[in-house]
Write a structure and sequence with these properties.
Length: 53
């Protein structure tokens, strides 16, 4: 049995994108390994917040 996950190019950010965002926000994050749920949640929240203007 094979389990696959459907993801579109814009539906999921890559780990590298999340790490780059976290570093730009001053968050501490390891260069490798699992991204903490709190960091991922903060990243997603920042993407869903409308920009000022």
């Amino acid at each position: 049995m094979t389990i696959s996950r459907a993801t579109g190019p814009s539906s999921q950010a890559t780990a590298a994108e999340i790490r780059a965002w976290a570093v730009s926000e001053g968050l501490e994050i390891a260069a490798k390994g699992r991204i903490p749920a709190q960091v991922r949640a903060a990243f997603e929240a920042s993407r869903n917040t409308p920009a000022d203007g």
